[in-house]
Write the C-alpha cells for this entry.
Amino acid sequence: MKKLMDDHRKMFGEFEVIDFVDESEIQGLRSQIDVDAPLEVHWSWEYGSEVEELRRLYEKGKVNQWNAELDLDWEMPVSKDEFVLNPQASMLAQACALLGKDEATQKAAAFDELAYTLSQLLHGEQAALQICGQLTNVCEKMDEKWYASSQVIDEARHVEAISKFLQRKMGTIYPVGATLKVLLDELLAAETMKKKTLGMQTLFEGTAVGIMDLMRSESRNDFFTDMIRRIEQDESRHAAFGVLMMRRVVKEAEKEEMEELEDWAFSILEALNANQQLDMLRLLGPKYDIDPENITRMFVALPNHAELNSLAFMHTVIPNLQRLGLITERTESDWRRVGLMVDQRGGQRPSSVEFHLA
Ligand SMILES: [Fe+2]
Ligand SMILES: [Fe+2]
C-alpha cells in the first residue's frame, strides 16, 4: 500500500510518525498556493428530482441556514485567563502541568493550542469550500449539484465564523501545518468525483464532526459552544451527503475499484493520524519549554493510546467506512495497528451520520 509522505517517516517506539522539521521546506509547502485540479464539468437536462434522499437533505440544509455575523452573540466574552476547553483536552496544558508550570502558564498554553487547532480546522474549511465548488461541477445529477452548491455557502460561513473567532477572540491565525497542507492538496487534486467525495465528504467531514463533537463536549465557554454546535450541525449534514453519494458509488463498484478506494481512504487517514500533533508541538512546544519529541514519544507509548487516539475517528468516519464496505478484513488490522480503530466498550456504538440523518 502506498504511504503518503514516505520520506518524512520515523519510528517513535513502535509507532511510525510523520515529522516535518525543515523550516524552509514547510515554508515552501505553504507558499504553494496554486494547485492543479483536473475538472470534468457536466451539464444535466434532468430538472426533476432523481435522487430523493439528496433532495431531502438539500431541503434540510435550506431550513437550517444561519448567519455567522448575526446569529452568534459576538459580545460574549472569551478570555485568555480562563480555560476555554477543559484542561485535560489540551496536550500542551497537560505537558505544562507535568513540568510543574503554574496554572496561568497552563491556561496560556491551552489557549495557544486551541488557536492552533482551530486554525487548522479553518484551513480545512477553506479546502472544503473549494472542493465543494468542484463537486458542483463534476457531479452528474441535478440533485447532487443542488446539494453540493448549498454546501458551498455552508463552508463559506464556516470559514467566516472561525476566521472571525480567531481574529476577534483569540488574536491569532496560525499557518497551515505541513502534513495537513500535503493532504488537503491531495484532496483538492483528486482526479475523480468518487475520490473527491470520499476524500472530502467522507474522510475529512467525518473526522471534523468527531473533532468538533469532542471540542463541544469539553467546552467551558458559551460562545464557543454555540459556534461549534452550529458548525457541527452543518458538518453532520455534509458527512451525510458523503455517505449518500458513496453508497451509490460502492453499489456499482467492482472489487478492484473497491480495494483502490479502501486503500486510498486508509492512506489519507493514516497520514493525517501519523503526525500525532507534532506539527503543533514543534511550533508551540519550545515557547513552554516542551520537547515535542519527548511528549509525542510518551503519548504514543501510553497503554491506552489507541483508545484516546481513536476517539475522533470512531465517532463518525470509521463507522461510516465500515457501513460502506471500505474497511474490510483485508485492511482491518492496519486500521487497528495505527490506533484509528478500537472496539467500542460495552457494545456502545458511537453516534454517526445515520443518527444525524434520522
Ligand atoms: Fe465546514
Ligand atoms: Fe463541511
Remarks:
- The chain has 16 helices and two strands.
- The chain has a mean pLDDT of 93.
- Residues 103-138 form the longest helix (36 residues).
